[in-house]
Amino acid sequence: MTYRRRNGFDTWHFCTNCSLWPTGDFKEQSGKPTTGELCNQCRSKDRDGHCRR
């Protein structure tokens, strides 16, 4: 799974349909991040089965 966070921020996103999904000036990695936190909107979409990856 791909995770993105905006440079200078600690919140990681993993749903491409998240309203806060970074599209510029971001760091990307595959695999769950070990630092920072996961976006609450992404977590909610994932839990409800509406997360696009």
What does this structure look like?
The protein is 15% helix and 26% strand. The relative contact order is 0.34. The strands form 2 sheets. Strands 1-3 form a two-stranded antiparallel sheet. The protein is an alpha+beta fold and 53 residues long. It is built from 1 helix and 4 strands. The chain has one helix at residues 40-47; strands at 2-6, 11-12, 26-30, 37-38.
Describe the protein's topology:
Layout: E1 2-6, E2 11-12, E3 26-30, E4 37-38, H1 40-47
Parallel strand pairs: 2-4
Antiparallel strand pairs: 1-3
Give a summary of the structure in a few sentences.
The protein is of the alpha+beta class and about 55 residues long. It is built from one helix and four strands, in the order ββββα.
Keywords summarizing the entry:
53 residues, single chain, two-stranded antiparallel ribbon
Radius of gyration from the alpha-carbon trace, in angstroms: 10 Å
The helical percent reads 10-25%
Low-confidence stretches: none
The neighbouring-strand order within the major sheet is 1-3
Structural class: alpha+beta
Beta-strand portion reads: 25-35%
Number of helices: 1
Number of strands: 4
Task: Give the overall shape.
Answer: globular
Order of helices and strands: EEEEH
The largest sheet, given as strand count, sense and whether it forms a barrel, is: 2 strands, antiparallel
Q: What is the averaged pLDDT score?
A: 97
Q: Could you give the distance between the termini?
A: 7 Å
